[in-house]
Amino acid sequence: MKLKPISAAIFLSTLPISTVFAGGLDRSGQSILAFLQSGNYAEAGISILDPDVSGTSKTQDFEGEKISDMADDYTFVNAAIKVQATDKVSLGLIYDQPYGADATYSANGVLSSFSQAGEGTSVEVKTQNLTALIGYQPNKNWNFYVGPVWQTVEADIKLRGRAYGAAPLTLSGYNIKVDQEEAYGWLAGFAYQIPEIALKAAVTYRSEIKHNAKSHETTGLAAVANIIPEAGHPYSPYKPVLATLGSREDTVEAVTPQSVNLDLQTGIASNTIAFANIRWVHWDQFAVTPSLLADASSLRGKKQNLIDYSDDQWSANIGVGHKFSDKWSATTSVGWDSGAGNPVTTLGPTEGYWSLGLGAQYSPAENYFIQAGVKHLWLGDATAQTAGNPVGEFTDNNAWAYGMKIGYRF
Which of 30, 199, 281, 350 has fewest C-beta within 10 Å? Predict the structure, then answer.
């Protein structure tokens, strides 16, 4: 069961497709395993997600309409460097893109559930994370680490179609663009290892990060500014309550959630290890509610959030890795994700998944390797809603994920 150091390093740096599609906006899984490598180490990876998400409309006047694949391909990168500054102190820097969304509903005629005038509902959310780490190793078994996190968020979202209400109080035509904005959080954790048997356990906590970003909102409601009767008097003279709702520049608050990662691995046979990752993300009560959208939707009787989730996300990835020779090794893994509550937002209509992944690694020399992997995901069924009303059923969906990584010791 004893593994050579380079063999253990093979599996400590897991494939870059370990998460790639999860509850809420979670994408990268925010791994810090590169920092737990021994000695000086650097890596860079890329992951590609190719989802197929379709469904059936439950929107009034369009019930039963087929909704074709609305999920766009999604690509993200990660990189890390770790330096063993002294026998007891290590330094690290990790870059990833932890949260995101990319989806476009097809335009279907003049008006459909999720399109209007030749344009479909669409969402693009991008984030970046840069984590600086300092670790203290009092002995060969323990590692305590902490560091600041720099994060940016930006978004571009458009709502189109009857799913967002009927005229004159429809939210179809609503747009929001959120400028890239930076904010700061922190990370802390500890790891325990027994290198002789490739045993390692690590617990990492990441704080929530609060963003107040500049937003640019527009809506078509200004065109019907004079047709709303004064409250309590349905036949009284009309009151121009919507005259100020045409466009607005403001700030929107978004809090990326706190999370905990538990990483485990141990040797189970000669050149064979078992590994697991368990992740918790605090999506419960998460909501993004831009001011113009809140005001406009309130006129329809219920304030609508742009994005919201009702449950915390739990996920697990469990697998086995085996070294066949000094140059070749492989892994296989099974994954599960709970999602972040159902019903869900129309901008990401899936609820968790099950997955099966395969990976391979080629090591031309002892100090560097190349990894590649593929994963298939069976996505959970979900009901999409707007303002508490079901507008679509999304069932029997799936995704493919592909990843590649290069690791180097120096």
Answer: 199
